[in-house]
Amino acid sequence: MTTGKVKSVHSESGYGYIATEDGTEYYFHRAGVKGPLQFDNLFGGERVKFEIEANREGPRAVDVTRA
Fold it and tell me: Which helix (H) or strand (E) is 63 found in, with range?
């Protein structure tokens, strides 16, 4: 698993971005957040861990949980 911090959350659209320590950013969707972490409670700055999945638009974070 990869770790990073939630950089931004666009709650009205259901997505956000996670930045890793090396500065790489990964898109994540509301459906990729796993409990007990809840998308609606993310505001940015939370430490998370996640898997990276290939997507037609580029790599994205899935199985996002609290680190």
Answer: strand 60-66
Q: What is the dihedral of CA 4, 56, 53, 17, to 10 degrees?
A: 20
pTM for the whole thing? 0.93
Write the DSSP assignment of 24-62 as a string of letters. -EEEEEGGGB-TTS-GGG--S--EEEEEEE--TTS-EEE
Q: Which residues pair with 25 in a beta bridge?
A: 19
Q: What is the pLDDT of residue 20?
A: 98
**What does the alpha-carbon distance between residue 6 and residue 1 come to, in Å, rounded to a whole number?**
15
